[in-house]
Protein backbone atom coordinates (compact mmCIF):
# COMPACT_ATOMS: atom_id res chain seq x y z
CA UNK A 1 0.00 0.00 0.00
CA UNK A 2 1.38 3.42 -0.99
CA UNK A 3 -0.05 6.40 0.86
CA UNK A 4 -0.02 9.81 -0.78
CA UNK A 5 -2.05 13.03 -0.66
CA UNK A 6 -4.18 11.58 -3.47
CA UNK A 7 -5.60 9.15 -0.89
CA UNK A 8 -6.65 11.93 1.46
CA UNK A 9 -10.30 11.04 0.92
CA UNK A 10 -9.54 7.35 1.73
CA UNK A 11 -9.11 7.94 5.44
CA UNK A 12 -12.00 5.62 6.34
CA UNK A 13 -10.74 2.89 4.02
CA UNK A 14 -7.32 2.99 5.66
CA UNK A 15 -8.93 2.66 9.05
CA UNK A 16 -10.76 -0.47 7.91
CA UNK A 17 -7.62 -1.93 6.33
CA UNK A 18 -5.43 -1.48 9.41
CA UNK A 19 -8.15 -3.02 11.57
CA UNK A 20 -8.24 -6.03 9.26
CA UNK A 21 -4.43 -6.30 9.54
CA UNK A 22 -4.64 -6.47 13.33
CA UNK A 23 -7.36 -9.10 13.13
CA UNK A 24 -5.20 -11.14 10.77
CA UNK A 25 -2.32 -10.93 13.26
CA UNK A 26 -4.62 -12.21 16.00
CA UNK A 27 -5.74 -14.99 13.68
CA UNK A 28 -2.15 -16.15 13.17
CA UNK A 29 -1.54 -15.97 16.93
CA UNK A 30 -4.51 -18.26 17.47
CA UNK A 31 -3.15 -20.66 14.84
CA UNK A 32 0.23 -20.92 16.60
CA UNK A 33 -1.50 -21.40 19.95
CA UNK A 34 -3.56 -24.29 18.61
CA UNK A 35 -0.40 -25.84 17.10
CA UNK A 36 1.27 -25.59 20.52
CA UNK A 37 -1.68 -27.33 22.16
CA UNK A 38 -1.51 -30.09 19.55
CA UNK A 39 2.20 -30.59 20.29
CA UNK A 40 1.53 -30.78 24.03
CA UNK A 41 -1.30 -33.28 23.59
CA UNK A 42 0.80 -35.35 21.21
CA UNK A 43 3.73 -35.39 23.64
CA UNK A 44 1.38 -36.36 26.47
CA UNK A 45 -0.09 -39.22 24.48
CA UNK A 46 3.37 -40.44 23.46
CA UNK A 47 4.52 -40.36 27.08
CA UNK A 48 1.41 -42.24 28.21
CA UNK A 49 1.99 -44.81 25.48
CA UNK A 50 5.61 -45.28 26.56
CA UNK A 51 4.57 -45.57 30.19
CA UNK A 52 1.79 -48.02 29.37
CA UNK A 53 4.16 -50.50 27.75
CA UNK A 54 6.97 -50.15 30.28
CA UNK A 55 7.62 -53.49 32.05
CA UNK A 56 5.87 -53.85 35.38
CA UNK A 57 7.83 -54.21 38.60
CA UNK A 58 7.41 -57.95 39.08
CA UNK A 59 9.21 -61.21 38.52
CA UNK A 60 8.25 -61.16 34.86
CA UNK A 61 10.38 -58.04 34.34
CA UNK A 62 13.52 -59.92 35.38
CA UNK A 63 12.57 -62.74 33.04
CA UNK A 64 12.03 -60.38 30.10
CA UNK A 65 15.30 -58.54 30.65
CA UNK A 66 17.20 -61.67 29.63
CA UNK A 67 16.15 -61.39 25.99
CA UNK A 68 17.69 -58.95 23.54
CA UNK A 69 14.40 -58.15 21.81
CA UNK A 70 12.83 -57.21 25.16
CA UNK A 71 15.77 -54.95 25.99
CA UNK A 72 15.55 -53.44 22.51
CA UNK A 73 11.86 -52.70 22.98
CA UNK A 74 12.57 -51.13 26.38
CA UNK A 75 15.26 -48.94 24.79
CA UNK A 76 12.78 -47.97 22.07
CA UNK A 77 10.26 -46.94 24.73
CA UNK A 78 12.88 -44.82 26.48
CA UNK A 79 13.86 -43.15 23.21
CA UNK A 80 10.18 -42.58 22.45
CA UNK A 81 9.84 -40.87 25.81
CA UNK A 82 12.72 -38.56 24.89
CA UNK A 83 11.10 -38.02 21.50
CA UNK A 84 7.94 -36.84 23.29
CA UNK A 85 10.07 -34.46 25.31
CA UNK A 86 11.22 -32.76 22.12
CA UNK A 87 7.62 -32.09 21.13
CA UNK A 88 7.14 -30.49 24.54
CA UNK A 89 10.16 -28.32 23.76
CA UNK A 90 8.51 -27.30 20.47
CA UNK A 91 5.35 -26.31 22.31
CA UNK A 92 7.29 -24.32 24.92
CA UNK A 93 9.31 -22.48 22.25
CA UNK A 94 6.16 -21.66 20.27
CA UNK A 95 4.64 -20.12 23.37
CA UNK A 96 7.73 -18.21 24.49
CA UNK A 97 9.10 -17.10 21.11
CA UNK A 98 5.93 -16.48 19.08
CA UNK A 99 2.67 -16.42 21.04
CA UNK A 100 3.86 -14.27 23.93
CA UNK A 101 5.64 -11.90 21.55
CA UNK A 102 2.65 -11.58 19.20
CA UNK A 103 0.21 -10.92 22.04
CA UNK A 104 2.39 -8.11 23.36
CA UNK A 105 3.00 -6.70 19.87
CA UNK A 106 -0.73 -6.78 19.05
CA UNK A 107 -1.53 -4.72 22.12
CA UNK A 108 1.14 -2.15 21.20
CA UNK A 109 -0.08 -2.12 17.61
CA UNK A 110 -3.65 -1.40 18.67
CA UNK A 111 -2.50 1.48 20.87
CA UNK A 112 -0.32 2.93 18.08
CA UNK A 113 -3.12 2.65 15.51
CA UNK A 114 -5.55 4.31 17.89
CA UNK A 115 -3.13 7.20 18.43
CA UNK A 116 -2.57 7.76 14.69
CA UNK A 117 -6.25 7.79 13.83
CA UNK A 118 -6.97 10.05 16.79
CA UNK A 119 -4.47 12.55 15.36
CA UNK A 120 -6.08 12.21 11.93
CA UNK A 121 -9.57 12.80 13.26
CA UNK A 122 -8.33 15.80 15.24
CA UNK A 123 -6.75 17.33 12.12
CA UNK A 124 -9.90 16.64 10.15
CA UNK A 125 -12.08 18.27 12.77
CA UNK A 126 -9.78 21.30 12.87
CA UNK A 127 -9.93 21.88 9.11
CA UNK A 128 -13.69 21.42 9.13
CA UNK A 129 -14.01 23.97 11.94
CA UNK A 130 -11.85 26.46 9.98
CA UNK A 131 -14.00 25.93 6.93
CA UNK A 132 -17.15 26.68 8.91
CA UNK A 133 -15.63 29.92 10.27
CA UNK A 134 -14.60 30.92 6.73
CA UNK A 135 -18.14 30.34 5.53
CA UNK A 136 -19.47 32.44 8.40
CA UNK A 137 -17.14 35.35 7.51
CA UNK A 138 -18.12 35.05 3.88
CA UNK A 139 -21.83 35.17 4.65
CA UNK A 140 -21.34 38.16 6.95
CA UNK A 141 -19.42 40.01 4.26
CA UNK A 142 -22.14 39.23 1.76
CA UNK A 143 -24.82 40.40 4.16
CA UNK A 144 -23.02 43.64 4.99
CA UNK A 145 -22.50 44.38 1.29
CA UNK A 146 -26.18 43.98 0.60
CA UNK A 147 -27.08 46.20 3.56
CA UNK A 148 -24.62 48.88 2.39
CA UNK A 149 -26.05 48.75 -1.12
CA UNK A 150 -29.63 49.15 0.15
CA UNK A 151 -28.57 52.03 2.43
CA UNK A 152 -26.85 53.77 -0.47
CA UNK A 153 -29.90 53.36 -2.71
CA UNK A 154 -32.17 54.76 0.02
CA UNK A 155 -29.87 57.76 0.45
CA UNK A 156 -29.90 58.49 -3.27
CA UNK A 157 -33.67 58.21 -3.32
CA UNK A 158 -34.12 60.70 -0.48
CA UNK A 159 -31.53 63.04 -1.97
CA UNK A 160 -33.47 63.22 -5.23
CA UNK A 161 -36.82 63.80 -3.52
CA UNK A 162 -37.42 67.59 -3.02
CA UNK A 163 -40.13 67.00 -0.51
CA UNK A 164 -37.71 65.37 2.01
CA UNK A 165 -36.08 67.57 4.54
CA UNK A 166 -32.40 68.13 4.65
CA UNK A 167 -32.14 66.43 8.04
CA UNK A 168 -33.62 63.18 6.67
CA UNK A 169 -31.25 63.27 3.76
CA UNK A 170 -28.27 63.75 6.06
CA UNK A 171 -29.42 60.92 8.25
CA UNK A 172 -29.76 58.61 5.25
CA UNK A 173 -26.32 59.66 4.05
CA UNK A 174 -24.77 58.82 7.41
CA UNK A 175 -26.56 55.50 7.46
CA UNK A 176 -25.23 54.63 4.00
CA UNK A 177 -21.69 55.55 5.00
CA UNK A 178 -21.92 53.40 8.14
CA UNK A 179 -23.16 50.44 6.13
CA UNK A 180 -20.38 50.88 3.65
CA UNK A 181 -17.87 50.98 6.49
CA UNK A 182 -19.28 47.76 7.94
CA UNK A 183 -19.08 46.11 4.54
CA UNK A 184 -15.50 47.20 4.21
CA UNK A 185 -14.67 45.78 7.66
CA UNK A 186 -16.39 42.45 6.82
CA UNK A 187 -14.46 42.36 3.58
CA UNK A 188 -11.19 42.80 5.45
CA UNK A 189 -12.14 40.08 7.99
CA UNK A 190 -13.20 37.70 5.26
CA UNK A 191 -10.04 38.35 3.31
CA UNK A 192 -7.74 37.75 6.30
CA UNK A 193 -9.54 34.63 7.43
CA UNK A 194 -9.62 33.26 3.91
CA UNK A 195 -5.88 33.69 3.74
CA UNK A 196 -5.54 31.92 7.09
CA UNK A 197 -7.82 29.08 6.01
CA UNK A 198 -5.93 28.54 2.80
CA UNK A 199 -2.72 28.30 4.78
CA UNK A 200 -4.22 25.79 7.25
CA UNK A 201 -5.77 23.80 4.44
CA UNK A 202 -2.47 23.63 2.63
CA UNK A 203 -0.75 22.50 5.84
CA UNK A 204 -3.49 19.96 6.49
CA UNK A 205 -3.39 18.29 3.10
CA UNK A 206 0.31 18.57 2.41
CA UNK A 207 1.85 18.19 5.87
CA UNK A 208 -0.40 16.84 8.65
CA UNK A 209 -2.39 14.20 6.79
CA UNK A 210 0.64 12.85 4.81
CA UNK A 211 2.57 12.59 8.08
CA UNK A 212 -0.26 10.60 9.66
CA UNK A 213 -0.55 8.44 6.56
CA UNK A 214 3.20 7.81 6.65
CA UNK A 215 2.99 6.68 10.27
CA UNK A 216 0.15 4.32 9.37
CA UNK A 217 2.20 3.01 6.47
CA UNK A 218 5.21 2.39 8.72
CA UNK A 219 2.96 0.69 11.25
CA UNK A 220 1.52 -1.58 8.56
CA UNK A 221 4.94 -2.46 7.21
CA UNK A 222 6.19 -3.32 10.70
CA UNK A 223 3.16 -5.54 11.23
CA UNK A 224 3.81 -7.41 7.99
CA UNK A 225 7.51 -7.71 8.81
CA UNK A 226 6.72 -9.01 12.30
CA UNK A 227 4.39 -11.60 10.83
CA UNK A 228 7.13 -12.78 8.47
CA UNK A 229 9.63 -13.08 11.34
CA UNK A 230 7.15 -15.17 13.36
CA UNK A 231 6.55 -17.47 10.40
CA UNK A 232 10.30 -17.99 10.07
CA UNK A 233 10.59 -18.67 13.81
CA UNK A 234 7.71 -21.12 13.45
CA UNK A 235 9.89 -23.21 11.13
CA UNK A 236 13.11 -22.71 13.12
CA UNK A 237 11.48 -24.07 16.29
CA UNK A 238 11.00 -27.40 14.53
CA UNK A 239 14.45 -27.31 12.97
CA UNK A 240 16.13 -26.79 16.35
CA UNK A 241 14.91 -30.12 17.74
CA UNK A 242 15.68 -32.13 14.62
CA UNK A 243 19.21 -33.15 15.79
CA UNK A 244 17.89 -34.55 19.07
CA UNK A 245 14.94 -36.18 17.31
CA UNK A 246 17.46 -37.73 14.93
CA UNK A 247 19.43 -39.07 17.89
CA UNK A 248 16.25 -40.59 19.31
CA UNK A 249 15.54 -42.30 16.00
CA UNK A 250 19.16 -43.44 15.80
CA UNK A 251 18.77 -44.90 19.29
CA UNK A 252 15.70 -46.83 18.16
CA UNK A 253 17.58 -48.11 15.12
CA UNK A 254 20.56 -49.11 17.25
CA UNK A 255 18.27 -50.92 19.69
CA UNK A 256 16.66 -52.82 16.81
CA UNK A 257 20.08 -53.77 15.43
CA UNK A 258 21.16 -55.08 18.85
CA UNK A 259 18.59 -57.90 18.70
CA UNK A 260 20.32 -61.30 18.51
CA UNK A 261 17.92 -64.14 17.66
CA UNK A 262 20.47 -66.87 18.34
CA UNK A 263 21.31 -65.44 21.74
CA UNK A 264 17.61 -65.28 22.65
CA UNK A 265 17.00 -68.83 21.51
CA UNK A 266 19.97 -70.02 23.56
CA UNK A 267 18.55 -68.14 26.53
CA UNK A 268 15.26 -69.98 26.12
CA UNK A 269 17.11 -73.29 26.06
CA UNK A 270 19.10 -72.28 29.14
CA UNK A 271 15.99 -71.08 30.99
CA UNK A 272 13.89 -74.19 30.41
CA UNK A 273 16.61 -76.84 30.43
CA UNK A 274 15.32 -79.44 32.86
CA UNK A 275 18.43 -81.51 33.51
CA UNK A 276 16.61 -84.83 33.16
CA UNK A 277 18.46 -87.67 31.50
CA UNK A 278 16.58 -89.22 28.57
CA UNK A 279 15.22 -92.68 29.38
CA UNK A 280 16.90 -95.79 28.10
CA UNK A 281 15.59 -98.32 25.61
CA UNK A 282 12.54 -100.38 26.55
CA UNK A 283 13.46 -104.03 26.61
CA UNK A 284 11.42 -106.87 25.20
CA UNK A 285 9.21 -108.67 27.72
CA UNK A 286 8.66 -112.32 26.95
CA UNK A 287 5.18 -113.43 28.05
CA UNK A 288 5.49 -116.89 26.56
CA UNK A 289 7.78 -118.36 29.21
CA UNK A 290 5.76 -118.43 32.39
CA UNK A 291 2.81 -116.86 34.20
CA UNK A 292 5.18 -114.76 36.18
CA UNK A 293 5.56 -111.48 34.33
CA UNK A 294 8.97 -110.00 33.96
CA UNK A 295 9.29 -106.36 34.94
CA UNK A 296 10.93 -104.09 32.42
CA UNK A 297 14.44 -103.05 33.32
CA UNK A 298 13.82 -99.53 32.11
CA UNK A 299 10.37 -99.04 33.67
CA UNK A 300 9.85 -96.20 36.13
CA UNK A 301 8.14 -98.66 38.56
CA UNK A 302 10.50 -101.23 40.03
CA UNK A 303 8.04 -103.28 42.07
CA UNK A 304 4.57 -104.71 41.92
CA UNK A 305 3.45 -102.41 44.69
CA UNK A 306 4.58 -99.40 42.67
CA UNK A 307 2.32 -100.48 39.82
CA UNK A 308 -0.65 -100.87 42.15
CA UNK A 309 -0.10 -97.38 43.55
CA UNK A 310 -0.02 -95.87 40.08
CA UNK A 311 -3.70 -96.71 39.66
CA UNK A 312 -3.30 -97.60 35.98
CA UNK A 313 -3.06 -100.75 33.87
CA UNK A 314 -0.60 -99.08 31.53
CA UNK A 315 3.18 -99.33 31.78
CA UNK A 316 5.24 -97.07 34.02
CA UNK A 317 5.97 -93.52 32.84
CA UNK A 318 9.24 -92.94 31.06
CA UNK A 319 9.39 -89.19 31.94
CA UNK A 320 8.59 -87.53 35.25
CA UNK A 321 6.40 -84.76 33.80
CA UNK A 322 4.79 -86.54 30.76
CA UNK A 323 0.99 -86.20 30.95
CA UNK A 324 -1.06 -89.32 30.33
CA UNK A 325 -4.64 -90.29 30.92
CA UNK A 326 -3.99 -90.68 34.63
CA UNK A 327 -2.72 -87.06 34.80
CA UNK A 328 -0.45 -87.81 37.73
CA UNK A 329 0.95 -84.35 38.49
CA UNK A 330 1.21 -84.70 42.28
CA UNK A 331 4.58 -85.51 43.80
CA UNK A 332 4.79 -87.03 47.26
CA UNK A 333 6.89 -86.69 50.44
CA UNK A 334 6.80 -83.39 52.33
CA UNK A 335 10.26 -82.70 53.75
CA UNK A 336 11.14 -80.70 56.83
CA UNK A 337 12.41 -77.13 56.57
CA UNK A 338 15.92 -78.30 55.77
CA UNK A 339 16.98 -80.67 52.99
CA UNK A 340 16.05 -84.32 53.49
CA UNK A 341 18.60 -86.83 54.68
CA UNK A 342 20.09 -89.11 52.06
CA UNK A 343 20.92 -92.62 53.05
CA UNK A 344 23.83 -94.43 51.54
CA UNK A 345 21.49 -96.76 49.73
CA UNK A 346 19.53 -93.93 48.17
CA UNK A 347 22.57 -92.47 46.42
CA UNK A 348 23.03 -93.82 42.88
CA UNK A 349 26.03 -95.97 42.49
CA UNK A 350 28.42 -95.59 39.58
CA UNK A 351 27.35 -98.95 38.26
CA UNK A 352 23.73 -97.89 38.21
CA UNK A 353 24.34 -95.28 35.52
CA UNK A 354 24.20 -96.71 32.01
CA UNK A 355 27.40 -96.20 30.14
CA UNK A 356 26.46 -97.65 26.78
CA UNK A 357 23.09 -97.24 25.10
CA UNK A 358 23.74 -100.41 23.05
CA UNK A 359 24.07 -102.79 26.02
CA UNK A 360 20.59 -103.89 27.15
CA UNK A 361 21.98 -106.06 29.91
CA UNK A 362 22.43 -103.59 32.74
CA UNK A 363 22.19 -103.72 36.47
CA UNK A 364 18.68 -104.12 37.77
CA UNK A 365 16.50 -101.15 36.72
CA UNK A 366 19.06 -98.30 36.94
CA UNK A 367 16.80 -95.71 35.30
CA UNK A 368 13.78 -96.66 37.40
CA UNK A 369 15.76 -96.41 40.60
CA UNK A 370 17.21 -93.07 39.60
CA UNK A 371 13.86 -91.54 38.65
CA UNK A 372 12.06 -93.04 41.62
CA UNK A 373 14.70 -91.62 43.95
CA UNK A 374 14.33 -88.26 42.25
CA UNK A 375 10.53 -88.23 42.59
CA UNK A 376 10.62 -89.54 46.15
CA UNK A 377 12.95 -86.75 47.23
CA UNK A 378 10.67 -84.02 45.87
CA UNK A 379 8.47 -82.17 48.34
CA UNK A 380 4.77 -82.30 47.68
CA UNK A 381 3.47 -79.77 45.18
CA UNK A 382 -0.21 -79.07 44.81
CA UNK A 383 -0.43 -79.10 41.03
CA UNK A 384 1.41 -77.80 38.03
CA UNK A 385 -1.75 -75.95 37.11
CA UNK A 386 -1.58 -74.04 40.37
CA UNK A 387 1.86 -72.75 39.40
CA UNK A 388 0.46 -71.41 36.18
CA UNK A 389 -2.13 -69.55 38.20
CA UNK A 390 0.60 -67.72 40.07
CA UNK A 391 0.87 -69.87 43.19
CA UNK A 392 4.15 -69.72 45.12
CA UNK A 393 6.29 -72.84 45.15
CA UNK A 394 8.18 -74.42 48.04
CA UNK A 395 11.10 -72.67 49.61
CA UNK A 396 13.61 -75.14 48.18
CA UNK A 397 12.13 -74.79 44.62
CA UNK A 398 11.55 -78.55 44.55
CA UNK A 399 8.63 -78.06 42.16
CA UNK A 400 11.11 -77.14 39.40
CA UNK A 401 13.17 -79.43 37.16
CA UNK A 402 16.74 -80.08 38.40
CA UNK A 403 18.51 -77.52 36.20
CA UNK A 404 15.99 -74.77 36.94
CA UNK A 405 16.02 -75.63 40.63
CA UNK A 406 19.83 -75.39 40.67
CA UNK A 407 19.71 -71.91 39.10
CA UNK A 408 17.09 -70.68 41.55
CA UNK A 409 18.99 -72.03 44.55
CA UNK A 410 22.27 -70.55 43.30
CA UNK A 411 20.64 -67.12 42.81
CA UNK A 412 19.07 -67.27 46.27
CA UNK A 413 22.40 -68.26 47.79
CA UNK A 414 24.17 -65.37 46.06
CA UNK A 415 21.60 -62.91 47.44
CA UNK A 416 22.07 -64.27 50.96
CA UNK A 417 25.86 -63.99 50.65
CA UNK A 418 25.50 -60.36 49.57
CA UNK A 419 23.33 -59.66 52.61
CA UNK A 420 25.86 -61.35 54.87
CA UNK A 421 28.69 -59.27 53.43
CA UNK A 422 26.66 -56.10 53.92
CA UNK A 423 25.97 -56.95 57.56
CA UNK A 424 29.64 -57.75 58.12
CA UNK A 425 30.67 -54.41 56.65
CA UNK A 426 28.31 -52.65 59.06
CA UNK A 427 29.71 -54.70 61.94
CA UNK A 428 33.28 -53.78 61.00
CA UNK A 429 32.37 -50.09 60.80
CA UNK A 430 30.68 -50.19 64.20
CA UNK A 431 33.65 -52.06 65.64
CA UNK A 432 35.95 -49.28 64.43
CA UNK A 433 33.68 -46.68 65.96
CA UNK A 434 33.61 -48.56 69.26
CA UNK A 435 37.43 -48.75 69.30
CA UNK A 436 37.61 -45.01 68.70
CA UNK A 437 35.12 -44.36 71.52
CA UNK A 438 37.17 -46.58 73.85
CA UNK A 439 40.34 -44.64 73.05
CA UNK A 440 38.55 -41.26 73.10
CA UNK A 441 35.69 -41.39 75.64
CA UNK A 442 34.89 -37.72 75.00
CA UNK A 443 33.70 -38.59 71.49
CA UNK A 444 31.02 -41.05 72.61
CA UNK A 445 29.98 -43.91 74.84
CA UNK A 446 31.32 -47.31 73.66
CA UNK A 447 28.34 -49.07 75.26
CA UNK A 448 25.95 -47.25 72.93
CA UNK A 449 27.23 -49.32 70.00
CA UNK A 450 26.72 -52.72 71.68
CA UNK A 451 22.95 -53.09 71.01
CA UNK A 452 23.44 -52.50 67.33
CA UNK A 453 26.41 -54.90 67.22
CA UNK A 454 24.31 -57.55 68.95
CA UNK A 455 21.49 -57.05 66.48
CA UNK A 456 23.87 -57.32 63.53
CA UNK A 457 25.36 -60.49 65.01
CA UNK A 458 21.93 -62.06 65.24
CA UNK A 459 21.17 -61.07 61.67
CA UNK A 460 24.43 -62.61 60.48
CA UNK A 461 23.64 -65.87 62.31
CA UNK A 462 20.20 -66.04 60.71
CA UNK A 463 21.61 -65.35 57.26
CA UNK A 464 24.38 -67.90 57.74
CA UNK A 465 21.80 -70.48 58.76
CA UNK A 466 19.80 -69.69 55.63
CA UNK A 467 22.96 -69.95 53.52
CA UNK A 468 23.76 -73.37 54.98
CA UNK A 469 20.23 -74.54 54.26
CA UNK A 470 20.34 -73.43 50.61
CA UNK A 471 23.87 -74.79 50.19
CA UNK A 472 22.56 -78.17 51.29
CA UNK A 473 19.69 -78.08 48.82
CA UNK A 474 22.03 -76.93 46.07
CA UNK A 475 24.50 -79.73 46.72
CA UNK A 476 21.64 -82.23 46.80
CA UNK A 477 20.42 -81.08 43.37
CA UNK A 478 23.88 -81.24 41.86
CA UNK A 479 24.36 -84.71 43.31
CA UNK A 480 21.16 -85.94 41.67
CA UNK A 481 21.72 -84.24 38.31
CA UNK A 482 22.94 -86.59 35.52
CA UNK A 483 25.75 -84.27 34.51
CA UNK A 484 28.52 -83.89 37.04
CA UNK A 485 30.70 -81.44 35.15
CA UNK A 486 30.68 -78.84 37.93
CA UNK A 487 33.62 -80.24 39.89
CA UNK A 488 33.71 -77.41 42.40
CA UNK A 489 30.39 -78.58 43.95
CA UNK A 490 30.35 -81.26 46.64
CA UNK A 491 28.26 -84.38 46.21
CA UNK A 492 27.30 -85.37 49.76
CA UNK A 493 25.64 -83.15 52.38
CA UNK A 494 24.74 -85.59 55.08
CA UNK A 495 26.19 -88.90 56.16
CA UNK A 496 23.95 -91.92 56.53
CA UNK A 497 24.66 -92.24 60.24
CA UNK A 498 23.40 -88.66 60.85
CA UNK A 499 20.02 -89.15 59.14
CA UNK A 500 18.14 -89.33 62.45
CA UNK A 501 19.75 -86.13 63.67
CA UNK A 502 18.89 -84.38 60.44
CA UNK A 503 15.25 -85.40 60.80
CA UNK A 504 15.13 -83.62 64.16
CA UNK A 505 17.15 -80.61 63.18
CA UNK A 506 17.56 -80.09 59.43
CA UNK A 507 20.20 -77.46 59.79
CA UNK A 508 22.81 -79.43 61.84
CA UNK A 509 25.57 -81.93 60.92
CA UNK A 510 25.77 -80.69 57.34
CA UNK A 511 28.73 -80.74 55.05
CA UNK A 512 29.66 -77.32 53.68
CA UNK A 513 30.57 -76.79 50.01
CA UNK A 514 34.24 -76.80 50.81
CA UNK A 515 34.05 -80.29 52.32
CA UNK A 516 34.28 -79.39 56.04
CA UNK A 517 31.56 -80.23 58.53
CA UNK A 518 30.05 -77.35 60.50
CA UNK A 519 27.77 -77.10 63.49
CA UNK A 520 24.84 -74.70 63.84
CA UNK A 521 26.58 -72.87 66.68
CA UNK A 522 29.81 -72.19 64.77
CA UNK A 523 31.67 -68.97 65.46
CA UNK A 524 31.25 -66.02 63.11
CA UNK A 525 34.74 -66.47 61.74
CA UNK A 526 34.15 -70.14 60.78
CA UNK A 527 30.78 -69.49 59.18
CA UNK A 528 32.13 -66.49 57.30
CA UNK A 529 34.84 -68.70 55.81
CA UNK A 530 32.12 -71.10 54.64
CA UNK A 531 29.94 -68.47 53.04
CA UNK A 532 32.69 -66.47 51.40
CA UNK A 533 36.07 -68.14 51.69
CA UNK A 534 37.86 -65.41 49.79
CA UNK A 535 36.61 -62.53 51.95
CA UNK A 536 38.67 -61.33 54.89
CA UNK A 537 38.02 -58.79 57.58
CA UNK A 538 40.73 -56.11 57.52
CA UNK A 539 41.87 -54.69 60.81
CA UNK A 540 41.56 -51.01 61.61
CA UNK A 541 45.29 -50.48 61.31
CA UNK A 542 45.74 -52.47 58.10
CA UNK A 543 43.81 -49.90 56.07
CA UNK A 544 46.64 -47.43 56.41
CA UNK A 545 49.43 -49.91 55.67
CA UNK A 546 48.04 -51.90 52.71
CA UNK A 547 45.96 -49.44 50.72
CA UNK A 548 47.52 -47.37 47.97
CA UNK A 549 47.36 -43.60 47.84
CA UNK A 550 43.75 -42.62 47.19
CA UNK A 551 42.80 -39.79 44.80
CA UNK A 552 41.42 -36.51 46.11
CA UNK A 553 37.61 -36.30 45.91
CA UNK A 554 37.12 -32.88 47.54
CA UNK A 555 38.24 -30.52 50.29
CA UNK A 556 37.17 -29.82 53.86
CA UNK A 557 37.53 -27.01 56.36
CA UNK A 558 38.14 -27.69 60.06
CA UNK A 559 35.35 -26.21 62.20
CA UNK A 560 37.04 -27.16 65.49
CA UNK A 561 40.58 -28.13 66.51
CA UNK A 562 41.36 -31.85 66.81
CA UNK A 563 44.39 -33.29 68.61
CA UNK A 564 44.59 -36.64 66.79
CA UNK A 565 46.52 -38.56 69.47
CA UNK A 566 45.19 -42.01 68.50
CA UNK A 567 46.74 -44.16 65.83
CA UNK A 568 45.17 -43.63 62.40
CA UNK A 569 43.95 -40.09 63.16
CA UNK A 570 45.48 -36.80 62.11
CA UNK A 571 45.62 -33.52 64.03
CA UNK A 572 44.15 -30.35 62.59
CA UNK A 573 43.75 -26.72 63.60
CA UNK A 574 40.55 -24.71 63.43
CA UNK A 575 40.04 -23.21 59.96
CA UNK A 576 42.65 -25.47 58.33
CA UNK A 577 41.92 -26.70 54.78
CA UNK A 578 42.55 -30.39 54.02
CA UNK A 579 41.98 -32.70 51.06
CA UNK A 580 39.24 -35.36 51.35
CA UNK A 581 40.26 -38.79 50.00
CA UNK A 582 37.46 -40.95 51.50
CA UNK A 583 33.90 -40.06 52.53
CA UNK A 584 32.21 -40.93 55.79
CA UNK A 585 30.90 -44.50 55.42
CA UNK A 586 28.56 -44.28 58.38
CA UNK A 587 31.13 -44.67 61.17
CA UNK A 588 31.47 -40.92 61.84
CA UNK A 589 35.01 -40.56 60.40
CA UNK A 590 36.30 -38.92 57.22
CA UNK A 591 39.68 -39.70 55.73
CA UNK A 592 41.74 -36.63 54.78
CA UNK A 593 45.22 -35.75 53.55
CA UNK A 594 47.43 -32.78 54.39
CA UNK A 595 50.20 -33.59 51.92
CA UNK A 596 51.41 -36.62 50.00
CA UNK A 597 52.85 -38.31 53.12
CA UNK A 598 50.49 -37.21 55.93
CA UNK A 599 46.90 -38.51 55.98
CA UNK A 600 44.46 -39.98 58.48
CA UNK A 601 40.94 -39.87 59.89
CA UNK A 602 39.17 -36.90 61.47
CA UNK A 603 35.67 -36.72 63.02
CA UNK A 604 33.11 -35.87 60.34
CA UNK A 605 31.29 -33.52 62.72
CA UNK A 606 34.49 -31.48 63.16
CA UNK A 607 34.80 -30.52 59.45
CA UNK A 608 32.76 -29.02 56.64
CA UNK A 609 33.17 -31.16 53.51
CA UNK A 610 33.07 -29.81 49.94
CA UNK A 611 32.97 -32.76 47.51
CA UNK A 612 33.65 -32.41 43.82
CA UNK A 613 30.71 -32.92 41.44
CA UNK A 614 32.07 -36.06 39.79
CA UNK A 615 32.94 -37.47 43.20
CA UNK A 616 29.30 -37.17 44.32
CA UNK A 617 28.15 -39.06 41.26
CA UNK A 618 30.72 -41.78 41.84
Explained architecture:
It is a single chain. The chain is mainly α and 618 residues long. Among the domains are: 10-259, Up-down Bundle (Substrate Binding Domain Of Dnak, Chain:A, Domain 2), CATH 1.20.1270.60; 420-480, no CATH class; 554-611, SH3 type barrels. It has 14 helices and seven strands. The protein has helices at residues 11-52, 59-64, 68-160, 166-257, 261-272, 304-310, 366-376, 384-388, 402-439, 450-480, 499-504, 524-531, 542-546, 613-617, and strands at 510-511, 517-518, 554-558, 577-582, 589-593, 599-603, 607-611. The chain has a five-stranded antiparallel β-sheet. Strands 1-2 form a two-stranded antiparallel sheet. A hairpin with a 6-residue loop joins strand 4 and strand 5. The longest helix is centred in the first third of the chain and has 93 residues, at 68-160. The chain is elongated. Mean pLDDT is 74; it is low at 1-7, 292-368, 374-391 and 483-547. This is Formin binding protein 1. Residues 399-476 form the REM-1 domain. Residues 293-317, 342-366, 388-407, 495-525 are annotated as: Disordered. One of its GO terms (biological process) is signal transduction. Residues 496-507 have a biased composition (Polar residues).
Amino acid sequence: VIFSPILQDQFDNLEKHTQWGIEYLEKYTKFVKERSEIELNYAKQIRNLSKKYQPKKNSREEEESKYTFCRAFLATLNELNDYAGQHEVIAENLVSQIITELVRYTQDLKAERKSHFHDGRKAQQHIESSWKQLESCKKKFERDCKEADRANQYFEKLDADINVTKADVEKARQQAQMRQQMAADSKNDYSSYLQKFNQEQNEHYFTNIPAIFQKLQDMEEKRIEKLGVCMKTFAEVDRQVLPIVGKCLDGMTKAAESIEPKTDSKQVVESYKSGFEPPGDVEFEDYGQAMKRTASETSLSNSKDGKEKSGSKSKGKLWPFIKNKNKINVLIVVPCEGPPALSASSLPSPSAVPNDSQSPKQHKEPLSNRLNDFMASKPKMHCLRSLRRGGSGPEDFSHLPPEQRRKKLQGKLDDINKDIQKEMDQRDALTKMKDVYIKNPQMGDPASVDPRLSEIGQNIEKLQFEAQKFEGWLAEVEERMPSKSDTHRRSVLYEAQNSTTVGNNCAQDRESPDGSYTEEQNSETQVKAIVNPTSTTPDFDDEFDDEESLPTIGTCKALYPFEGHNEGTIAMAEGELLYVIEEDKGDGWTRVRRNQDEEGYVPTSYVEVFLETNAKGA
